[in-house]
Amino acid sequence: MNDKSRFDYHQIDKILHSRIRLSVVSILASCDKADFTSVKKAVGTTDGNLTSHCLKLEKAGYISIKKKFIKRKPVTSYCITEKGRDALIHYAAKLASLIETQGD
């Protein structure tokens, strides 16, 4: 392997490199917003697991979380931010670059 074909794994976004967080951001990239139940069902994880991963995404600025009450019932919705969309595009490009580099 020469220097040209080396891939710096440090360039992979640590936040998005989690399967659950990548799934959440990918789902949100395909819609305007999604509620907790829809995201949970699509990702196939537990309430607590989804909540903790979404909080990490929010802290990174990749998603926004809105909470409100409808008929006294809490409703949480998620939206991808511009920063999150850019991070997802950059992440996908880096993975594609890794695949291309290894094919040489």
3D structure, described in words:
The protein is an alpha+beta fold. It has one domain (13-103): Arc Repressor Mutant, subunit A (Orthogonal Bundle), CATH 1.10.10. It is built from four helices and three strands. The protein has a three-stranded antiparallel beta sheet with strand order 1-3-2. Strand 2 (63-70) and strand 3 (73-80) form a beta hairpin. Helix 1 (19-29) packs across helix 3 (47-59). It is elongated, with a radius of gyration of 16 Å.
Quick overview:
With about 100 residues, the chain is α+β, with helices and mostly antiparallel strands. The protein has four helices and three strands, in the order αβααββα. A three-stranded antiparallel sheet has the order 1-3-2.
Notable features of this structure?
alpha+beta, Arc Repressor Mutant, subunit A, three-stranded antiparallel β-sheet
Annotated CATH topology: Arc Repressor Mutant, subunit A
Shape: elongated
Radius of gyration: 16 Å
CATH H level, superfamily name: Winged helix-like DNA-binding domain superfamily/Winged helix DNA-binding domain
| Percent of residues in beta strands | 15-25%
* Assigned CATH class: Mainly Alpha
Please state the average pLDDT score: 90
